[in-house]
Amino acid sequence: MAFEEGTVNQAAQVQEKQHKNAPQPLGPESSTWRDFGSYLFHLMLPQAFVLQSAHPVIDAAVSKDKKYKYDPWGRAKGSVKLLWPVVYSRPEKAIEMGHRLREMHRQIKGVDKDGNKYHALDPEAYSWVHITGFDATLRMFEYFGRPVSREERARIFDEWKQMGSLLGIPDRNIPQTEDEYWKHFDYIIEERLIWGEVLDDLMDPAFYGNYPRPEEMKYLPMPIFRLLMGTMGWLMHKVTVATLPQNFRRKFNVEYTKSDQRFFKLFAWAVRTFYPLVPERMRYIPLAWKAIKDSRNHPDAYEHDYTDTNTNELVIS
């Protein structure tokens, strides 16, 4: 009997450890659901992509086919289909999508122009992509939203770590406190980032204005499309520069004039003033809004059993 009890206790301890380490989906009540799929957060994505692409591993991988330049619309659609469902899905599907996203990155590898091997699952590079998200969220509120309380900030940080688990990033590669986070964030910017081929493209003031015409807009005359993209491209470049971290701009001597600052201050004020007046359904990308409606119509479907051992099969270390 003692042997049986000991075996049961050991099994229970193992199961408890597995449950603790299992990725837990972010539900409809999370701050991440409120923010990640909003167009407000999308204002921060260009600068996040700049930060990510400045990592030498990511620069090597992304510059291989330059899809961001030659097929930006297709790349954006692909990102939405792969990453956003890690948040905006029913629990089991969210876990599955996190696993699928990591497995997709397993195939991205090669040799850069200097003969160095690279792999998308390089621990520093893979975690860096996720690390840029917490900074982007806080500065989204700073520029375009409202003050964030200490409690809400802590919640956002915890959810950010939770998202990292869903993406298969081990705890050892993710800062566990905010102090650790900012030390690591600044270290990567100041010591590891480079100005490579990708940043030559992304930081070109004409980059967004030169986007190719998407299939959905093929009926729009090219001169009108170019006029629209020229205006939007100018705006997106200004917003990208303004929302980059100061130490990044300083390191790479990115010009940010007093005139730029005044313009961005006015732009941010306009967003803070008028964005809350936009109907809720129009504040989210379609995929996110569809999930939000589904969670309201079928709340039971989003109740996740965190003791379900089947989720352990998807844990990646």
From TrEMBL:
Coiled coil: none
Pfam family, one: MPAB_Lcp_cat
Region feature (Disordered): 1-29
Domain ER-bound oxygenase mpaB/mpaB'/Rubber oxygenase catalytic positions: 33-273
Lineage: superkingdom: Bacteria
Name assigned to this protein: ER-bound oxygenase mpaB/mpaB'/Rubber oxygenase catalytic domain-containing protein
GO molecular function terms attached to this record: oxidoreductase activity
